[in-house]
Amino acid sequence: VFIKANASMDSLVEKEVLEDASAFVNELEENSEFKTTSTRKKLVEQHHAWKEEAYKGMPNATGKDKVDKFGNIIRPKYVSNHTHYSPTDSDARVSVKPGKARQLNYFGQIAVDDAHHVITGACSDFADKRDSQCLEKIVELIEENLNENDIELEELLADGGYSSGEALAYLHKKNIDAYIPNFGQYKPEREGFTFNKEENYYQCTKPEGNQAKLLFKGEKTDSKGYTKRTYRSSESDCKNCPLREQCCGKSTKFKKLDDSIHKEHYDRMHQKLTQNAKYAKKMSRIRSKTVEPVIGTLVNFTNMKRVNTRGIKNANKHVLMASLTYNLKKYLRFTIKKPSVLAQVIS
């Protein structure tokens, strides 16, 4: 959940631009969060220019459009955490929810037990992170809190935002039985291809195809930082295939498939969720009715939606105090139901 930082969007200033990567490395140890490379700045500006053109003429989300003297809609300036920071609170990050305005936030993480809705772990993180990048931190906090009472964490429920190869690999290593829906781009199967796990290659199985083999060519990291395994056929195998243009494209002469290096973890989760779909849906409902009401209470009744201090450490204290208040109220209302015993004396 986003927590509004004690800083305004008007406080944002541009980071100092370093001309090349070597200069960035030299400055890495000294205030690197206030600097960026010229290459990254250029890429961000290109993306913002595309957004400005793509969104041109679209109505404002608030329904109150501001126009200039030529009648063009005035839109707020696009900013990025790569190129801007707030000197008021340098730990705050620009973030946005669908249908909401951009603002400087922190990222609250909450874990709740499904038996009594008690908060078992709480922390604050940087708002430019994804949920999956925060999972390891919150799990360690949960285990630390539970171990004090000789309780072990065996099962974990989370939404699809916590799905990533690194997160699933971490949970598998910790032997935690997790139920997390795979993210939208995951493909359990490749249509028209089968995977040979023993020899590590894909085989074309299309009836009209040439039955080409897509051999493993190595691992590469893309522009977004994801490392993938590449499988590719030879040009000779696809040269006379009647499906070449449909399968490979007009200009490409070979077929290429990319898999995440963590595909085995995604496959394991997919198999778990589909083998017993009824139980998986039950787990999803339990997650929704357990954590969502708690977050609503924290935001609306313990004032967690906004932090009045500055810095990530104080934001973390803010989340902890809100969670502590919630748990204390829960504890005060908690009663042990004693069984009523009817004693009868027979003479």
**Strand residue percentage:** 15-25%
The string of secondary-structure elements, in order, is EEEHEHEEEEEEHEHEEEEEHHEHHH
Largest beta-sheet characterization? 5 strands, antiparallel
What is the count of distinct domains? Answer: 3
DSSP summary, beta strand count: 17
Helical residue percent? 25-40%
**Number of helices, counting only DSSP H or I runs of 4 residues or more:** 9
Strand order of the largest sheet: 13-14-15-16-17
Mean pLDDT, to the nearest integer, reads 84
| Secondary structure category | alpha+beta
Shape: flat
Low-confidence stretches: none
Distance between the termini: 65 Å
Rg, alpha carbons: 26 Å
Note the main attributes of this structure:
347 residues; alpha+beta; 5-stranded antiparallel β-sheet; 4-stranded antiparallel β-sheet; 17 strands; 34% helix; 21% strand; flat; Tnp_DDE_dom; IS1182 family transposase
What does the model show?
- It comes from Flavobacterium tibetense.
- This is IS1182 family transposase.
- InterPro entries: Tnp_DDE_dom (IPR025668).
- Residues 207-331 form the Transposase DDE domain.
- The protein is an alpha+beta fold and 347 residues long.
- The protein has three domains: 2-105, no CATH class; 106-177 and 266-333, no CATH class; 193-261, no CATH class.
- Helix content is 34%, strand content 21%.
- The chain contains nine helices and 17 strands.
- It has helices at residues 21-26, 38-54, 131-147, 165-173, 235-238, 244-248, 263-275, 277-301, 312-333; strands at 2-4, 13-14, 16-18, 35-37, 66-67, 73-74, 84-85, 93-95, 103-112, 119-126, 155-157, 177-179, 193-196, 201-204, 213-221, 227-232, 256-260.
- The strands form six sheets. A five-stranded antiparallel β-sheet has the order 13-14-15-16-17, with no helix packed on it.
- α3 (131-147) runs parallel beside α4.
- The longest helix is centred in the C-terminal third of the chain and has 25 residues, at 277-301.
- The radius of gyration is 26 Å and the shape is flat.
- The model has no long low-confidence stretch (mean pLDDT 84).
